[in-house]
Structures are given as C-alpha cells and as structure tokens.
Write a structure and sequence with these properties.
The protein is α/β, with parallel strands linked by helices. It is built from twelve helices and ten strands. The protein folds into two domains: 140 residues, Periplasmic binding protein-like II (D-Maltodextrin-Binding Protein, domain 2); 110 residues, 3-Layer(aba) Sandwich (D-Maltodextrin-Binding Protein, domain 2), CATH 3.40.190.10. Strands 1, 2, 3, 4, 5, 6, 7, 8, 9 and 10 form a ten-stranded mixed β-sheet that branches. The radius of gyration is 31 Å and the shape is globular.
C-alpha cells in the first residue's frame, strides 16, 4: 500500500512540474506570439500613416518613353511623392482604352480629339495641358518624292502620286491618328496601297523600319532627335501649323472605377504641371540635341494653342 501511495505521489508531482514548465514555456520562446494588446492595431502604438496604395499605373505614349523624358521625370516623382510608378508605354488609343477599362490610374497622351471623347464619356475626371512639340515628316536624304519644303498636305499628296514607300505606325497611337487625319483632309485613303506599309509598332521601331527601307514616315520631333544618330532619315517637312503635337495628363474617373489610385493620379497631375517640373521639361534635350524636345504649357489653355 505504501508503494502504491508513493507511485501515486510521484505521478502527481510529475504532473504539477509538467504544468509549471508548460506555463513558463512562452517566456523563454525565441518567437513569442504577441498578446492582442501588442498587435499593430493597438491604440497604444503610434505608427506612421501608410498610403492606401503606393503603386501607380501610368499609361502613356511611346514618344514620352522613347524620347527619354520619362527616364528623367519618373524617378523625381517617385522620390518626391513616395509612389512607385509602373509605366505602360503604348499608343494613345491603347492608353485611353486602358483608362476606359480601369486598367490605368493616370494617362499622359497626345490625341486631343480622342481625349475629349474620353472625357465626355465620363472616363476621365481631370485633364490638364502639360506640353507640346511638333510632328515632322522625315525621309531619305535623296527625297525621291521631292517633298522637301512643301506643306504637309502637298508632301503627302506627292508621296501618294509618286508611289514612294511610306511607313505608318498603324497602331491607333496619337501619331497614327494625326496621320490618318491628314490623309482624310486630302480625301486620300492609302490603306491597301502597295506604297503604304503599317508597322504596327511604336515610334522608335517605325523610324528604324523607315530608315532601313528608305521610306518616309510621320514622327514626333522628340523621338526622331533621340534616335537621329542611328537613322538614315532627314527632316523634310516641318513647321506646318497642322503638325502641332499636344500632350495632356488625365486622371481616370474613380466614379467609374473605384479601385483606381485616384490620389496617386492627382499627385502625378500636380507634379507634371508644377513650375519646377515644367522648367525641367523646357530644358530637356538642350544639352544633348541643342534644342528642347518639348515646350512646357501648364500655364496655357487649349485655346492658346488653337485647340
């Protein structure tokens, strides 16, 4: 009986010691689980404010990318604002489509008529003038269609008459829209003609194709100057008032797409139109090309530019 009682006492003692060890285990655990009062949500902790979303999707034209302008501006915006920008460089038509579908937060585009339709459809909330440059007609130095010095209308008609190869972007970009509008104003439809080739690519790639084939093409001045050293193309038509190339920044309407980063879009709009940024835009390209690639316009209106 004594033996039985002894074993019973030992068993009870072991159980008590085990319970005590179990109770102390959390105190020596290398990765303790915080008590509810210690969680990040506790009112006793002071945490810095966090943006609802630090990511911003910018849909823009290939010209702003190919010219190198965004390589200068985007890092500055990210540093000043804390947002991280994902840039999607496509044709203006595709950029506007991304905005319509809520797949972009902010747009930087250059097709005023299409932009106005976008705003009238309720897809954009704010639209602000940023800058302009111009379109130019470039081609081989030999100029087989004899267009140098002509107006843009006369030049395109000469190309169509001579049958010399013309490379179109064919990608619904702002440049493509401008080109199609010019053909239409001449009552000409080049589609399907043997001298008319659509690249379906961005401005840089289209210039390369035109250079390789000894063809004419319409381009924005900035992309041409940025790629000029690698091209066998000369500026043949410039300065025509019909060739104005205007850029606006547009915020996507959060009433249409509640999940867009509207705060980030507004931060980008304010950045692009701020005097300090406008000054950078006005000087961009001077050191490398001897002339600015864009003219800042945030202090102007569309009416000032004849739009």
């Amino acid at each position: 009986m004594v033996r039985k009682d002894r074993w019973l006492s030992i068993a009870v003692l072991a159980a008590v010691v085990g319970a005590l060890v179990a109770c102390r285990a959390p105190a020596v655990s290398p990765t303790p689980t915080p008590r509810p009062a210690e969680s990040a949500a506790s009112p006793t902790l002071t945490l810095p404010p966090v943006k609802a979303s630090a990511a911003l999707i910018l849909a823009t034209t290939t010209s702003t990318q190919d010219s190198g302008l965004l390589d200068v501006l985007i890092p500055l915006f990210e540093q000043e604002s804390g947002y991280t920008v994902k840039t999607v460089a496509v044709g203006t038509g595709q950029a506007l489509k991304m905005g319509e579908e809520g797949n972009a937060d902010v747009l930087l585009v250059h097709a005023p008529a299409a932009e106005k339709a976008f705003m009238e459809g309720g897809f954009g909330k704010e639209r602000a003038l940023v800058m302009h440059n111009d379109f130019i007609l470039v081609g081989p130095a030999a100029d087989p269609a004899k267009v140098k010095g002509l107006s843009i209308g006369e030049a395109l008609r000469a190309i169509a008459t001579s049958g010399v190869l013309f490379i179109s972007r064919g990608d619904d970009s702002g440049t493509h829209k401008m080109e199609l509008g010019l053909w239409k104003s001449l009552s000409l439809d080049p589609a399907g003609q043997p001298w008319y080739l659509e690249s379906g690519q961005g401005m840089g790639a289209t210039l390369t194709i035109a250079s390789e084939k000894g063809a004419y093409t319409l381009t924005d001045r900035a992309t041409y100057l940025a790629n000029r050293k690698a091209l066998q193309l000369e500026i043949l038509v410039e300065g025509d008032k019909l060739l104005l190339n205007v850029y606006h920044v547009i915020t996507v309407n959060p009433a249409r797409h509640p999940n867009v980063n509207y705060d980030g879009a507004m931060a980008f709009l304010r950045f692009m139109t701020a005097p300090s940024t406008q000054q950078i835009i006005g000087k961009f390209g001077v050191d490398k090309y001897g002339q600015p690639l864009f003219t800042p316009d945030a202090d102007k209106t569309d009416a000032d530019l004849g739009l």
